[in-house]
Amino acid sequence: MRTLVLPLLSLLAALPACVSYDLGQEQAVTEFSSGDPEAAIARYRDDGFTGSAFLSDTEVGTVASALGKWDLAQEYFLDAAAYTKDLDREEVITPESIGEALIRWTLTERIGPYQPEGYERVMLHASLAMTYLATGSLEDALVEVRLADLILIGDEKLYEKEYAAGGLGHFLSAVCYELSGRADDAIIDYRRMEEKGIGRDLAGPELIRLYRMIGKRGEAERMIRRYGSPPDLPEPAGSIVVIAGVGVGPVKREIRMDIPTGDGILSWAVPDYVGRPQPVSHLEIHGAGRSGTYRTVVVEDVTHTATENLKDRIFWLASRSAIRAVLKRELTSYLTKEWGSWGVLVGNIFALLTERADLRSWHTLPDTWQAARIFVTPGVTRLTIEAVGGDTHELAPIEIRPGETVFVFARSAGTRLFTNVVGGRRVADGSVPAEREPLEYIPMPDQGADR
Questions:
Q1: Could you give the CA distance from residue 196 to residue 155 in angstroms, rounded to a whole number?
Q2: Measured between alpha carbons, how far is 401 from 437 in angstroms, rounded to an integer?
Q3: What is the pairing mode between strands 405-413 and 238-246?
Q4: CA proximity to 152, closest of 128, 124, 122, 115
Q5: Which stretches does DSSP call E strand in 309-442?
Q6: DSSP state at residue 262
Q7: CA distance 142 to 176
Q8: Handedness of CA 19, 21, 24, 30 (dihedral sign)
Q9: What are the beta bridge partners of residue 420?
Q10: What is the Cα–Cα distance from 398 to 133, expressed in whole angstroms?
Q11: Per-position b or e across 351-369, b if 16+ CB within 10 A of its CB
């Protein structure tokens, strides 16, 4: 029995943190979505609040990104990326990690450092890429989307399946390549979106435009037969790229069974994802381009990917839970022989308290990532961004030069909408140019060539 004292004390010390995590996370998400994101950031900056350095860093980074605090978001996302590298090394070589792994195997999944799931690592690098894009570092953004793609490919090989995922990374990569003058590489990313069936309503017209631009008329005609002929572009043209996180991603719940047997209780528990209600379905952009109204297209279904990713891990989680259940029943049997009915009581309480699924996850991720690309006549553009089912923002007038690309980074959480514009030049009263933003994204020349 002496050997049980330390694990029991560790467990009892950790259980209050687990409970406060589950309850506190919802409070922080509510603050984020109801108008007090700074309070959410303050909570998430405390590692003890989430019980995980990775989660603290990614939650702060996500909320900071919604506020357009790109340097702060980048700092925390970089810390999270460094943490995952350190975690990989520690899992292999340190005695402490061996002890924590044994506790997870024999007591509960909630003890020890949080192990980020594959989709969370993909989202981390995609999120980091957006901070680089927003601060003008195209090559750094491309490095991050490549890392995201490698992690996704690794998971697909491991679980021998193809996730309908990675569209956000492909879209970011395609935009970065085009801004770098590499149309052929941009085409590859759009084709991968099309092949995966992700964001085809966005990828199709972009492929037609790029094929026309580089003179591949046959390929452009083939895509037109599939998607129809897109509207003619202004000549010359400016570009608006909208990247939007819509809604709030899923949360984990516990699925458990407690089975009484003659030798004690068998407790089995695994996590499962549950999608949240989403009041906002998509964003609409009014006042840009010739049609007047555009809507965002889903390029990444975070909730779907998270659920599928967890399903692929559930066999291992269920197996560990089953092994723990048998070990704890054997403990109860031993205690019964030593202490009689008191042993039965202690063993059963121990089994019930310790068998808990790990419900930690990255809570502030969106339900979906959505995007749109709009080509406009150069000059002053007045944009209104509507979160359909939520807030509407009328942005300050923006002057866009020929060939310039302006980014609108948006995020909805609940009915709340956050918008941040990168590039262009703000116009004070609709006619007088104000100070130009520090970033000017100029894509390839001859945007409308060979139309």
A1: 16
A2: 13
A3: parallel
A4: 122
A5: 368-376, 379-381, 384-387, 392-394, 398-400, 405-413, 416-422, 425-427, 433-436
A6: T
A7: 7
A8: negative
A9: 409
A10: 19
A11: beebbbbbbbbbbbbbbbb
User: Could you tell me how far CA 444 lies from the centroid of its own chain?
Assistant: 30
Helix (H) or strand (E) holding 209: helix 200-213
Contact 243, 407 (CB under 8 A): yes
**What gap in Å lies between CA 381 and CA 423, rounded to an integer?**
13
Could you say which DSSP state residue 362 is in? Answer: -
What letter does residue 437 receive in the DSSP assignment?
A: P
**Per-residue pLDDT tens listing for the chain (451 residues):** 444 444 544 444 445 444 445 566 888 888 998 878 999 999 898 867 777 889 999 999 999 999 999 999 999 999 999 988 865 544 433 344 434 444 444 455 555 678 888 899 999 999 999 999 999 999 999 999 999 998 888 877 777 677 778 899 999 999 999 999 999 999 999 999 999 999 999 999 999 999 999 999 999 999 999 998 888 888 888 999 999 999 999 988 877 766 666 655 666 677 888 999 999 999 999 987 666 789 999 999 999 999 988 887 766 665 565 556 556 555 556 556 666 666 655 555 665 566 667 888 999 999 999 999 999 999 999 999 999 999 999 998 999 999 899 999 999 999 999 999 999 888 865 555 555 555 666 654 444 444 3
Q: For residue 284, give both structure tokens.
A: 């609409």
Compute the distance between CA of residue 247 and CA of residue 416 in angstroms, rounded to an integer. 9
Name the strand (E) or helix (H) holding 301: strand 297-301
d(CA 119, CA 108): 23
In contact, 331 and 347? CB cutoff 8 Å:
yes
Contact 117, 310 (CB under 8 A): yes
Q: List the one residue out of 188, 126, 120, 119 whose CA is nearest residue 156.
A: 119
**Pairwise CA distance, residues 128 & 141, whole Å:** 7
* C-beta neighbour count of 347 within 10 angstroms: 23
The neighbour count for residue 208, using CB atoms within 10 Å, is 23
Q: Could you give all domains of the chain from N- to C-terminal order, each with its CATH number? A: 2-436 (1.25.40.10)
Name the residue with tokens 């002057």: 399
Distance set, CA 98 to CA 70, 83, 95, 105, 124 (Å): 37, 18, 5, 10, 26
Determine the residue type at 102: L
Q: Phi then psi for 346, rounded to 5 degrees?
A: -60, -45
Listed residue (109, 150, 96) closest to 313, CA to CA: 109
Q: Which whole-number Å values give the CA distances from 200 to 193, 204, 282, 372, 382, in the listed order?
A: 7, 6, 16, 11, 27
